[in-house]
Amino acid sequence: MSAPQNDVSDWWTTSIIDMAPGQIRLRGHPIQDLIGSITFPQMIWLMTRGDMPSDGQAQLLESALVAAVDHGPQAPSIAVARMSVTCGLGLNGAMANAVNMLDDVHGGAGEQAVELYNSIANAKNNGTTLQQATAEVIDMWQVSRTPFIPGFGHRFHKPEDPRAPRLLSLVDEAAALGIVDGKFADIGRAVQTLMNERKGRPVPMNIDGATAVIYAELGFTGPLARGLFCLSRSVGALSHAWEQMQQGGRNKGPTPPAYRWTYDGPNPIED
Ligand SMILES: CC(C)(COP(=O)(O)OP(=O)(O)OC[C@H]1O[C@@H](n2cnc3c(N)ncnc32)[C@H](O)[C@@H]1OP(=O)(O)O)[C@@H](O)C(=O)NCCC(=O)NCCS
Predict the structure, then answer these.
(1) CA of 152 to the centre of ligand 1 (A)
(2) CATH class for domain 109-225?
């Protein structure tokens, strides 16, 4: 029995790109109309969402992408990019290793933060106040998943991560102009207030918590929020990997070799 004629073309069905000799269309737009006309953040939105963002939406997306590019060689994603180069990897391998570090605890927490904020938004829709909804969802999260609330807390920036208030102020400006609703900024601030009250000291909203506010305001899902963070941090990983290549250095570990780890295993038994 012969296979239907479209079995091959259907194999990778996509609504992203249409191509024929001499023709490239992305989401229906001829590539030559996009080149020189739209910004990279607009292209990211068009590719991932299918429609064209307004200038205000694209600017807010861009601010989140700008904010997360780098956090220095102590950030595991950046450290691994630099170490990879000293082990002989090319820029692509170094960037791939950096992106692989961005999971629930480092950089990838934005995905969970979007989920958390959406849960609070849904709980609030059921008639409770924002404060009640926030407390309920946080309690549930801590019991059913982990005591650590994604998007909050920082090893280094205390009492405040300088990126968070700036990003929230941009959301406030966009909300005042009607570009976004502003409800996720309220939710992020409500989580912040609750965390600080419960801990008795600041548990600062971090870059994942702040960019998650923007991604939720713009209607990006959690998994896409993580992907966007990876795009942003890739710029830092590329820069550090390239700088390390210029500096040289072979087989660098996480500390200079003179520093040793703490050994707490058994010692040889002496006769
Ligand atoms: C980033 C992180 C690992 C830093 O943790 P840390 O080094 O223990 O942070 P701190 O030393 O400032 O913690 C101070 C206190 O607040 C608590 N705390 C920190 N972040 C917290 C969070 N997100 N949720 C609940 N409690 C938190 C700590 O457990 C600690 O409590 P304790 O003093 O009773 O032991 C942690 O905040 C975390 O896992 N956050 C969630 C994931 C996340 O957003 N990652 C992105 C980081 S940029």
Answers:
(1) 7
(2) mainly alpha
